[in-house]
Structure formats: C-alpha cells, structure tokens
Amino acid sequence: MKNKHLISPMDFSKEELNGIFELAEKIISNPKEFSHICDGQILATLFYEPSTRTRFSFEAAMMRLGGKILGFSEPNSTSSAKGETLADTIRMVSIYSDIIAMRHPKEGSAKVASMYSSVPVINAGDGGHQHPTQTLTDLLTIKSQKGTLEGHKIGLCGDLKNGRTVQSLIAAMSRYEGTEFVLISPKELVIPEYIREEVLKRNNISFKEVENIEEVIDELDILYMTRIQKERFFNEEEYLRLKDSYILDNEKMAKAKEDMIVMHPLPRVNEIATEVDDDKRAVYFKQAEYGMYVRMALIVKLLGVM
Ligand code: NCD
Questions:
Q1: Residue 3 lies in a domain
Q2: Partner of 67 for a Cys bridge, out of 37, 38, 202, 241, CB 3.0 to 4.6 A?
Q3: Which residues are catalytic?
C-alpha cells in the first residue's frame, strides 16, 4: 500500500482494509511499540473546510507515531486567498511533507490533488462526496463492537442526500456479505440517485427507504445517525424546517434491540438527545477514538514504514 492515495473507500481491497484494521488493533493493544515508527516524517493537514475531530485525529495520530505535522485550518491565511490554484499548493506542500490529509468543500478536489502530489494524499472529505477515513473509522467500530462486518442490517438516518459519511459507508458496506440497509430520511433528503442505482441496485443489495424511524428501529443491528448538513443547503428556511426531523431519545431506544449499536460521525447537533449517551448501546464517542487509531494504521501503511 506504500505511496497509494486514499480518495474513495473503494480504493482499497477488502484484504487491504483488513490489514489496516489488524494493524489498528495492534496499535490499540500496544501503542508504545509504535510511538517512534514515524520519527522524521511530516504529515501536512490542509483543511479548506471546518473540522475538529478529523483534523485533530489526523494530527494526534501522526504525533503518537512520533512524526511531525504542518498545515492550516483556515485557508484565508494561505496563498489560496491570493488565488493560488490547488494544483500549485499541492505541488509545493508535497515537497515539504511526506503525506497529505486534505479536506475541501469541492467534490472531486482530493482526486485533483492526488494528480499533482508526489506523496500520498488522503481525502479527509470532499464536499458532499466521500469521506473514506470516516468509513475506515466506521468499519473498525462495527468490526470491534459487533465482531464481524458481515450480516448486519444498518439503518442510516438523517441527511442522506448531503452526508458524505453515509455515501462512503454505503459503498464500503455493500462489499460485505449479508448487508441490508434501511435508509431513513425526509423525502427532501433521500440518498442520491447514483447510490441507489449504481451501488445498491447494481450489487443487488437489499434496501428500503422510509421516513419514520419508529417504524423500523426494532429491526436494526446498527443505527447510524447523521446531522442535517446545514452548510450544503442553499435555502435557510428549508434547513430550519428539516433540521429537527429526527431526534433519537430514550423512548425510541426502548424499542430497539438490546444489542443494536448507535453510531454517529459527529459533530451532533440535535439528532441524539444527550440522555442516550449513557445507554451502553451508544458507541459514538468510542467511534471517535477508533478514528484516531485507524488513521495511525493508515499513515503507517501509506508511508510504508513497516
Ligand atoms: C463528518 C463530516 O465532516 O462529514 N464529520 C466528521 O468528519 N467527523 C460528519 C458531519 O460533519 O456531519
């Protein structure tokens, strides 16, 4: 995997993904053993769009491997504000660093960056399109919490139209035997047609689309809640009308299976009541922790340092 880019979760085979998860599990059980493996290496984090978890987890991952970081979270303070093209920024940053993690509001920008980079580029989110490292996080969470990636009925709830985490997760989970999806969203925010046709129908994946969470919560093995993606709305009124479409609370949780897990890529706004945090089935904070370890494993693999 040395020197590969990660633009879409489908860039890696299932075997390569397994290799990343196995390494992440090793790091979790013995972090000290890995604390100098990236000595002398530099990760650049280029964040053209707001982020806390993703950027911090990349930076913490590199620091815990002994490497160093450089980058920005405020593009207005860089030459892109002077009109520098993404291609030129990437050419330059790939001279200064050994690996790049980039988040950008435009779909396809990570792909463009990878074409101009002499070092591996990791897509940390390109607009409403893909978010492959969140998917690695989600898969490791499912594997660790449920014991396997196969045979799960997964409810995805919220903004399925604009949510890049959902689109990446559907593509990735479609490769595992026995996956079924229940897509829960308001009519205005259903999943894009290309996912329905080119991923779900083409691969004969069982799925249904519903508006009401109560109707299906008792069937699910995994419930993946998402935020209504305010920044992707053109119309504020439409956002205000839809923003509280789903609020998961203890009353709804009472109807769910005893071993269903609740996931969320975070940040949460209002879609999971804080009372649910104490439910043992709520794994979203644990999920954020897996995110750091899986990024450590990913960096090690792409740099080829072991
Ligand atoms: C997600 C994202 O940026 O797409 N957050 C994250 O990376 N943890 C989800 C979101 O912003 O809703």
A1: no
A2: 38
A3: 53-54, 82, 103, 131
